[in-house]
Amino acid sequence: MEIILKQDVDNLGHKNDIVNVRAGFANNFLIPQGLAKLATPSAKKMLAEDIRQQAHKEIKLRDTATATADKLAALALTLSVKTSAEGKVYGSITSSQIAEEIEKAGISIDRKNVVLETVKQLGSYTATVKLYKDIKGTVAF
């Protein structure tokens, strides 16, 4: 029996794959659980159209993510923090502070996507910003 997977299923396939399984497995488990649907000719046509549209959207998202990564690479942030006489930072610099400074520069990102190391001394550091699946940007501060 041919089915179209709606979600990733271990040892069977990934989302939008057309796979052959036994009728009992499909009718008693996959379809009632909402993991799959029957692969009728109309469902196959709809799947092909959905895949085509998703590919087009993904190209747009990748292009905007790479453009944003280029903007971030050209950006140098300056943060003002309280320090001791030896140059130790009181408190810490957070991803929220980095995200706010990037917002002031005109690039909108979510603070949850900013990854940075702990900052204890004055100096130059870099933060990584997750933009899209495998596209990351770095910003110096």
Defining key terms:
37% helix, 3 helices, 6 strands, 141 residues
Q: Kindly provide the radius of gyration, computed on alpha-carbon positions and rounded to a whole number of angstroms.
A: 24 Å
Question: What does the average pLDDT come to?
Answer: 90
First-to-last CA distance: 57 Å
Number of strands: 6
**Helices and strands: which structural class?**
alpha+beta
Task: Tell me the fraction of residues in β-strands, as a range.
Answer: 15-25%
Backbone shape: elongated
**Major pleated sheet:** 3 strands, antiparallel
Give helix and strand order, one letter per element, not per position.
Answer: EEHEHHEEE
Helix run count:
3
Could you explain how this protein is built, in words?
The chain has 141 residues and is α+β, with helices and mostly antiparallel strands. 37% of the residues lie in helices and 18% in strands. It has a three-stranded antiparallel β-sheet with strand order 2-1-3, with helices on one face. Strands 4-5-6 form a three-stranded antiparallel β-sheet. It starts with a strand and ends with a strand. 10% of the residues are buried.
In short:
This protein has helices at residues 23-30, 41-74, 95-104; strands spanning 2-5, 18-20, 36-38, 114-116, 126-132, 135-140. The protein has 141 residues and is of the alpha+beta class. The N and C termini lie far apart (57 Å).
